[in-house]
Amino acid sequence: MKLTRHCPPLKNHNFLRKQRTFCASTDSQFVASLTEIVRGNQSWRVAFNNSFISQTLKPHHVEKVLIQTLDDSRLALRFFNFLGLHKNFNHSTASFCILIHALVQSSHYWPASSLLQTLLLRGLNPEGLFESFLVSYRRCNVSTTIGFDLLIQTYVQNRREADGLLIVKLMMDCGLLPQIRTLSGVLNGLIRIRQFHKVLHLFDEIVNSGLRPDVYVYTAVVQALCELKDFTRAGEVIQQMESSGCDLSVVTYNVFIRGLCKNQRVWEAIENKNLLGNKGLRADVGTYCTLVFGLCKVEEFEVGEEMMYEMIEFGFVPSEAAVSSLVDGLRKKGKIENAFDLVNKVKKFGVAPSLFVYNALINSLCKDGKFDEAESLFHAMGHKGLFPNDVTYSVLIDSFCKRGKLDVALLFLGKMTEAGTKATVYPYSSLISGHCKLGKLSAAKSLFDEMNASGLKPNVVIYTSLISGYCKEGDLHMAFQLYHEMTGKGISPSTYTFTTLISGLCRANRMAEAIKLFGEMTEWNVVPNEVTYNVLIEGHCMEGNSVRAFELLDEMVEKGLVPDSYTYRPLISGLCSMGRVSEAREFMNDLQGEQYKLNEMCLSALLHGYCKEGRLDEALDACREMLGRGMAMDLVCYSVLIYGILRQQDRRSIIDLLKKMHDQGLKPDNVLYTTMIDANAKAGNLKTAFGVWDIMVSEGCLPNVVTYTALINGLCKIGLVDKAELLCREMLANNLVPNQNTYGCFLDYFTSEGNMEKAEQLHDVLLEGFLTNTVTYNILIRGFCKLGRIQEAAEVLDSMIDRGISPDCISYSTIMYEYCRRGDLQEAIKLWESMLSRGVNPDTVAYNFLIYGCCVSGELSKAFELRDDMMRRGVKPNRVTYNSLIHGTCLMSSILPTAN
Fold first, then answer.
1. In terms of C-beta distances under 8 Å and separation of at least 24 residues, what long-range contacts does 309-318 make, across chains too?
2. Which listed site, 215, 576, 621, 792, has its alpha carbon 20 to 30 Å from 518?
3. DSSP, res 382
4. Distances (CA, A) of 211 to 181, 207, 235, 312
5. What does the alpha-carbon distance between residue 504 and residue 486 come to, in Å, rounded to a whole number?
6. Lowest-confidence pick of 433-447, 671-685, 803-817
7. Which value, in Å, is the radius of gyration of the alpha carbons in the chain?
8. Which is nearest to 799 in space by CA: 770, 777, 775, 828?
């Protein structure tokens, strides 16, 4: 239904009569009529609905009406807004300017400011806008220039400081002066955009114009001079301020003090603070906190502590940032007790220590390895009314993970959940990384799944930790599965991600894939670093491709990367492993000639190369040469040399080396002593072995399970099993638990003596203590085979499998050899197939045993098939392989003529 509304007739008949004569009226009469309408009581909506008025009305008419209503600026504003809102009238810039001047004249600053904001949205040129302001100012003949001030302030508020400065200059050129408050705002705006020289120039113009700067202007100028590090002139400006008679404020001096502290001129800052009393001023909290920061910056923490206590005594409350800075500084200087005292002191004077302070201190303590103190501080938080947040828990969990205390770290994760603190990715990242580093990948993966289930998204760091863990375990399949999962989610791999995967591939001897992945880094815009190149260089060296390794060295240098000892060590080792020890030494000489710093790792690699080839004299000569060049010998270098000497059984040289170590302040460690004991024990030199033992104990280096086992093994080898048992009892008395290798020495003795009854009894004891392993079973198998009791050897193999202990190639090949020796090739082949079905890869010895069995049984074609299979699997035949094949061929050749 259509609704209609009755419109009442227009009652103002005078207006209707005037309307008929408008067409003949002059422009001034039209403006006068408009002014009468504006000032009258009639409805503006009705009056301005008149088609003649709406068609005739132009911006210059509005300007004149506004000028004629200057005495009532609110009325003028209503008229202005009416036209804009209800008639969609496009006002001129002049109308805006006239109205702004009128409103300011009447002290209506808020609507004037609102109009200015709207005017600036038009994007007018500042010079053109100033011209309009100036013309309007003159047309209106207003008594104040505050309209110009408002324009400048609006520019500054809108981050258009340069435009505000331009208006100031245009005003001064016209003989108009802004208010000092406006100029202060411009100066501070210029400081905000770091236009310090413009601040100084404007200050000079202010002074030259005859205006009297106030404290805010002086403060801005002092700040600009401090930023320019012109502290001499800043001091002069302060003196000028003091002599000008303006009201002084501590803020100005605080700005000057902050500038001095920022530039490590803290003692001058303290001197200025001490002079405040002479000026009738008193240092405030800002003064003291600034000085504390300054003292911390120059590491004068003790003086900072005194300043903090002085501040508290005057009743000032220090800021959390100042307390945190000083607490952390005291902690770094090792003054933990002072830091604790300070935290307690500020609390007594009404300052509650912030969570930020506690977190910072806990974090610093953890970084310094003072974990017990960090944990005690955590427990003290509750007594101080503070509740740990996710940062607190994350810091502590990370510290526990780095120390390998994963159970405690998980306990804190539980506490975090119980406290209602939502876990972030950071504690999970620490926990996953910690578990991966300890090889606990199953637990790490469970945490990863738990994290995903809780809605937290793993980042590249977490994925890389897992990838690294799987790579170290040799599970490259799982590592690459995670890599593809990560990239599939749009997470870009980092340099460390690629480096970890490349390292895993290199260790697995999958160099082709490692090289391909190295190339993919460019596709991801990931730049390889020194470690990436080091890993790839080592991989090529391990493969024997030293040419490519040296090419990569040149490539990394061309890219601006700096090689280090981790780069050079594999190159030196690679050359040595290829029998090019002399080239390795020459390479080291060249590097040192080019002033490259090589460390002990490089020297130990070279020494290992010499000792491996039995070139001990050259190794010792290289040591003397490197020592002459300033390179130090470490424990590893001495260990390599001693190992080389042990092979030559040169007792005197070992004593000389031990003396040199002692003179250098180095002591052999447990590993080195054990190596010397083991070498002498295996050579039957038990007297020397026990002599080294005595030295070891006298030096305070306690023997471990491996040391005892080395001696026990030596005693068992020469039949002194009673003494070996006494040593084993001594080991138990020293709270050292014998392991499988220790018991294996006795087991080996019994089997070698043919005493299988005692061997089985000992093995049963090991079974009860869960100490059996593949090696112990292999010793039993070998013992039975040696006695020709092959059936019992096979039963041991079956028992081993039933008990969940995986047999290795030695387990199978020992029995296979006995079958082959007896001519029972069928049983040997059956055992071979069983071995392959269990996923045990045969080695050269296993192949040789079966090839030998085939040859002596006349199965020459089977023998050659095994040789071909051997090569397909990447197992290299040796002299024994070919001797067996030649023997088999000759045997067949001699049999055939006899048969014919």
1. 309/345, 311/285, 312/345, 312/346, 312/349, 314/283, 316/284, 316/285, 316/288, 317/285, 317/349, 317/350, 317/351, 318/285, 318/288, 318/289, 318/292, 318/346, 318/351
2. 576
3. G
4. 11, 6, 21, 41
5. 18
6. 671-685
7. 46
8. 777
